[in-house]
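Table S2 (text version). Query chain:
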Amino acid sequence: MRRWLVLLLAGLALACGAAKASPAPSAASDHPTSITRDGVKLTFAQEARAEAIGNKLRCLVCQNETVENSRAGLAKQFRTIIRHRVAAGDSNRQIIAFMVKRYGIYVLLKPPFRPETWLLWLSPGIAALIGLAVLLFARRRRRATPPPLSPEETDRLKELLS
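Corresponding structure-token output:
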């Protein structure tokens, strides 16, 4: 929802900019052209870029939440770093590469399929195979019936029960 709001505000900012550039006087100068979030002042387009980048990164505290959706203090620091780098003019790839270099590949919400992430990508399948093997082993073990008692064991059992 916040993303749509930012896109709507960016559209309004563009419309205000077009109205401001036109020769006819208007009250468009009263509308804001920038937004301050996490202590960084950005244009609406830059804010939309920062949010898009933040939605590709994982909060290391919450683990299954994006940096943009998390309320953790570390996520706020990540958002601030992202916004500072967007304001500095870094590209999306440069910002993501910086975050990966600094915090590791686990910071990516969808890490690439590379040798160092094979275990991460394949672990659900491996866990399912291990679970299936355990079930089959337990089922096979349960089917085995104990051998019948020998005559000596039967006599001993009768002696104990009487």
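Notes on Table S2: The chain has six helices and two strands. The chain has a mean pLDDT of 82.
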